[in-house]
C-alpha cells in the first residue's frame, strides 16, 4: 500500500489533463471537482471511527487520509498552473525545498510521537507530505507529456523503439537517484513522502511501464478486456480495493493466518475485485469526477 498510493498519483499524472495540454480549469471548478474526494475522505474518517477500525495514526495523522491528499493535489495543481513542459521543474523545486526542510529537522518532528492540539500538529504526516505528493504529481505530468503527448515527437515515437528506450533510460536514472539519495541524503520514507520515496515510486512505475512496452514484440492482442475495465475505472478500482481490504482486516486475524489461508484470501480478493470491476464496466458505470 505504501508503494500503491504513490503509484496511484503517478498513474493519474502521466495521463492527466495537464500532461495532455488540455486547458486548465478555474480554481472554483477545481474545488467542485475535488469535492467528491473530500466527501470520500470524511466518509472514510467517519466509517473507520464508527466500526472501530484499526488506523495507524503515524501514517497520515489523526484525521487525515489519502483522499484528502488527492483533493489537495488537484486543487493546488489548478491554482498554481504551469505548462506541462515546465511542471517538472516546479515539481523538482518543491521536492528539493521540502527535502532541505526535512534534513534540517522537519523529519525529526514528523517521525516523532509529538503531537499538539491544533489540527496541523494532529495530522502532521498527512499535511506536510502533500508537498512530496504534489511534487511527484508535477514531475509525472512532465514525464507523461514528454513520453506520450508531445506534439513534436508523438508521431515518430509511437512507430519506433525510441519511446521504449526513453522509458528504460528514465527508469534506470530514477533507480540510480534512489540509491544515491537513500544512502547519502535520507532513507526512503512514505510517511514523510521525501525525495527518496518520490524517486523510488517513479523508478518502479517507469520500470513496470517499460516492461509492459515490451509486449509490442509479442504476437496477439496487446490488452485484455479486464485491463481495459480497470483502465476505465481507476478510482472505482481503488475504492473497491480499499473496501475489500477493510473487510478482510475486520473479519480475519491476518497476523495469525496460515500460509494456506492467506493464499485463499488473496485468490478470493483478486477474483472479487476483478469480477466487480468487470461488472461495473459491463454496465457502463464509471466513477470519475474530473
UniProtKB/TrEMBL annotation:
InterPro entries in the record: PIGW/GWT1
> Is this entry keyworded Transmembrane helix?
yes
An annotated GO cellular component? membrane
Which Pfam families does this entry report, sorted A to Z?
Answer: GWT1
Task: State the Gene Ontology BP annotations.
Answer: GPI anchor biosynthetic process
**Protein known as:** GPI-anchored wall transfer protein 1
Per the record, the major location class is membrane
Record's bilayer topology term: Multi-pass membrane protein
Species this chain originates from: Prunus persica (Peach)
Q: Which domain of life is it from?
A: Eukaryota
Amino acid at each position: 500500500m505504501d508503494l500503491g498510493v504513490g503509484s496511484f498519483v503517478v498513474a493519474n499524472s502521466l495521463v492527466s489533463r495537464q500532461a495532455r495540454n488540455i486547458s486548465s480549469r478555474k480554481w472554483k471548478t477545481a474545488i467542485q471537482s475535488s469535492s467528491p474526494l473530500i466527501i470520500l475522505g470524511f466518509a472514510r474518517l467517519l466509517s473507520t471511527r464508527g466500526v472501530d477500525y484499526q488506523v495507524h495514526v503515524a501514517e497520515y495523522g489523526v484525521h487525515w487520509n489519502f483522499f484528502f491528499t488527492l483533493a489537495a493535489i488537484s486543487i493546488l495543481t489548478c491554482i498554481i498552473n504551469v505548462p506541462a513542459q515546465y511542471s517538472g521543474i516546479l515539481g523538482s523545486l518543491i521536492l528539493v525545498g521540502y527535502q532541505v526542510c526535512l534534513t534540517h529537522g522537519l523529519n525529526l518532528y514528523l517521525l516523532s510521537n509529538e503531537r499538539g492540539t491544533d489540527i496541523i500538529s494532529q495530522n502532521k504526516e498527512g499535511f506536510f507530505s502533500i508537498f512530496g505528493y504534489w511534487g511527484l504529481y508535477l514531475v509525472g505530468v512532465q514525464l507523461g507529456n514528454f513520453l506520450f503527448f508531445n506534439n513534436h515527437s508523438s508521431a515518430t515515437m509511437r512507430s519506433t523503439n525510441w519511446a521504449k528506450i526513453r522509458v528504460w533510460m528514465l527508469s534506470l536514472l530514477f533507480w540510480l537517484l534512489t540509491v544515491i539519495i537513500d544512502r547519502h541524503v535520507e532513507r526512503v520514507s512514505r510517511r514523510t513522502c521525501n525525495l527518496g520515496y518520490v524517486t523510488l515510486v517513479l523508478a518502479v512505475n517507469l520500470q513496470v511501464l517499460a516492461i509492459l512496452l515490451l509486449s509490442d514484440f509479442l504476437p496477439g492482442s496487446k490488452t485484455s478486456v479486464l485491463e481495459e475495465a480497470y483502465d476505465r475505472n481507476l478510482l472505482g478500482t481503488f475504492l473497491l480495493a480499499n473496501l475489500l481490504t477493510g473487510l478482510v482486516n475486520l473479519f480475519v486475524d491476518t497476523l495469525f493466518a496460515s500460509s494456506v489461508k492467506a493464499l485463499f484470501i488473496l485468490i478470493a480478493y483478486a477474483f472479487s475485485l476483478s469480477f466487480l470491476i468487470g461488472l461495473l464496466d459491463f454496465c457502463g458505470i464509471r466513477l470519475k469526477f474530473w
